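Batch job 17 of 40 flagged for manual review because the log was empty.
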Amino acid sequence: MNVRAIAAAVAVAALPGCAASVAKAPETPLPLSPVVALAPAAGLESIAVVCPKELYADASLLPALQALLPPSDAAALARRHGGADLRELDELVFASYPHATLVLARGVFDPAKIEATFSRRAITIEGRAIDHAGGALSTITRVWGEFSSVAAGPNAREQLAIFGLQAVAIERDDVTSSEAPTPMVGPLRAAELFALRKLAKAKPALAAPPLAAANAAAGEGAVKFMLPGPFSGQLAGAMGGMLSAATAIAAVARPSGGGHVKVRVVITGAFGDQAPRAAEKVAALADLIASSAMGRLAGLDHPVAARTTMSEPESVTLDCELDALALVRGLRAAAGASVEEVLGY
């Protein structure tokens, strides 16, 4: 056999291996940024979005952030949740639904440690499933069981979903294990389907009415809190009945340097030619809150920049700039608990 024939034989023998390597497609990561896009709009009662890494990137906010979450508390939370440091998360989302609470987090996670700490906290692990098989960036693993805590009470149900290395989600049901033994009937199921792009006809919370308009008007921020309308009862009667015409409320805060945060509150609704009057009511309520004992403690009576209001036919906006450390002290006093206690379940 001559040299040319040997070379041809080697090339033919190598073809199957080459074909296999070419045919293997690279892994497609799950679409998890922003992770708030996994929170379904259906049934949403309230939603809060925090970007810890963005907040901690502003050195001037560290005194306020350490007052809100002392380093020892942050370390305790990390130990309780598989080494995940809250301060290093890109996003943390709390979404409330009629019978469940959904917590979403985006960052870098060790799936094995997250699952192990979840299992240690459980009274009983009822099941485990691979809801989507893939590689390190696309596998979805779910574990569920029975828990007991001060916040959830005895025999509460929780489900954990681990989205590759990039995100985790916990759903806590308001019902007990005996009342709802079948998993995957709440917002966590929708979150998985959003991640797998299988809910083409549905929209996540901040992209669907009524929060889409409020979110757009409020703008970007490291902290967001939103309430979808319509509002009823005492809330609808607030500010002389103004909120009965409101469709959503959004509050956004973002670092502004010097230990300060800019805060914007937006109320959307069909105010029409009554919008200027509605803005006056918002300003009056802001003055009332600022002059209260809690408002003074939070520094609302001495804003860094004067409060301003703006009205449009479909929205009323209030803007102010506050001292972050004073604001944190007021929030802690109002909550009556530390972040570690609130998140320590």
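Reviewer: the log was empty due to a logging misconfiguration, but the result itself is present. The radius of gyration is 25 Å. Unflagging and moving on to job 18.
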